[in-house]
């Protein structure tokens, strides 16, 4: 199959990337999101309306969203695991909710203290609220290749969860390799099954780079017709419930790959990298993106 002519990038750095960072201010989050928007990133996961007891780093999501001055074309989404969170997101003007479960029963129990079936049941009022207010709902499925607690995850289990989320009303499903154990052959096996049963335009990929396979996995997904990719500027992130899992694939690395393949994203790579440098400087850590590091070295020559 030919590569897609255009690819949608869903930037998750400000939520999935920063949810494990304790020393980041509201103003720094706003600066990051505004910088990403200036670079041409349209789809921005801006925060999470979750219990501050469990994820205190996201307690200022409403303040962040209300303080943004992003491009008028920007489409903001937020994690809304329950009705209370969805109502709070709605008050901030969010037009896309994100809900999350997993293809692993063990991970779902550890992550949100319930079974997969129970997690989907919990999402029904969130989806109902979204439909009442013309808000889209995106579903995340974690551990689509492997789980830190049960090991390998079978593609059939992923397909079952995807079907349930689509039946619930999700317009798109993001397939998350939460602990980054995927390889191109495993990804191909998974997508071979899913694309036989589900529409291509309903699927997105979300790879973590724990074993350095994320870009190779994305290339495989592109070859199979996937045209929506989640990524985080500077490779920010990790998973609090998956020990040793490193960050999301870096948006800079994804854009460099796509440009090399002649695929349009309409994102300015240099401006994107600068937004990453700013947040990494604020966090006192280097970017996890090799493209970002190479561009910075070139700029500093």
From TrEMBL:
Database matches in Gene3D superfamilies: Aldolase class I
Instruction: List the keywords (alphabetical).
Output: Lyase, Metal-binding
Which BP terms in the Gene Ontology apply to this protein? ketone body biosynthetic process; L-leucine catabolic process
User: Is the Lyase keyword given for this protein?
Assistant: yes
Residue intervals of the Pyruvate carboxyltransferase domain: 7-273
Q: Which GO terms describe its molecular function?
A: hydroxymethylglutaryl-CoA lyase activity; metal ion binding
Pathway membership, UniProt: Metabolic intermediate metabolism; (S)-3-hydroxy-3-methylglutaryl-CoA degradation; acetoacetate from (S)-3-hydroxy-3-methylglutaryl-CoA: step 1/1
- The EC number(s) this enzyme carries: 4.1.3.4
Signal peptide (from-to): none
What CDD domains does UniProt report for this protein, alphabetically? DRE_TIM_HMGL
| InterPro entries, sorted | Aldolase_TIM, HMGL, PYR_CT
Q: Which family does it belong to?
A: Belongs to the HMG-CoA lyase family.
* Protein name, UniProt field: hydroxymethylglutaryl-CoA lyase
């Amino acid at each position: 199959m030919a590569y897609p002519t255009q690819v949608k990038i869903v930037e998750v750095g400000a939520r999935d990337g920063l949810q494990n960072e304790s020393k980041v201010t509201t103003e720094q989050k706003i600066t990051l999101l505004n910088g990403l928007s200036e670079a041409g990133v349209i789809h921005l996961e801006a925060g999470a309306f979750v219990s501050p007891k469990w994820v205190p780093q996201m307690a200022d999501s409403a303040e962040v969203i209300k303080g943004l001055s992003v491009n008028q074309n920007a489409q903001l989404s937020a994690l809304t695991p329950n009705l209370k969170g969805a109502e709070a997101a709605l008050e901030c003007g969010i037009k896309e909710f994100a809900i999350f479960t997993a293809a692993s029963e063990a991970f779902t129990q550890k992550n949100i203290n319930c079974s997969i079936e129970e997690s989907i049941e919990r999402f029904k009022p969130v989806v109902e609220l979204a439909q009442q207010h013309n808000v889209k709902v995106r579903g995340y499925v974690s551990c689509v290749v492997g789980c830190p607690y049960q090991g390998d995850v079978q593609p059939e289990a992923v397909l079952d969860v995807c079907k349930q989320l689509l039946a619930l009303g999700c317009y798109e499903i993001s397939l998350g390799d939460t602990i980054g154990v995927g390889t191109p052959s495993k990804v191909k096996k998974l997508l071979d099954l899913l694309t036989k049963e589900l529409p291509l335009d309903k699927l997105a990929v979300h790879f973590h780079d724990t074993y350095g396979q994320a870009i190779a996995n994305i290339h495989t997904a592109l070859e199979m017709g996937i045209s929506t990719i989640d990524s985080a500027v500077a490779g920010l992130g990790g998973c609090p419930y998956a020990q040793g899992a490193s960050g999301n694939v870096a948006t800079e690395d994804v854009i460099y790959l796509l440009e090399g393949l002649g695929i349009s994203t309409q994102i300015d790579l240099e401006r994107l990298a600068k937004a990453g440098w700013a947040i990494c400087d604020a966090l006192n850590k280097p970017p996890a993106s090799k493209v970002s590091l190479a561009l910075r070295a070139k700029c500093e020559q």
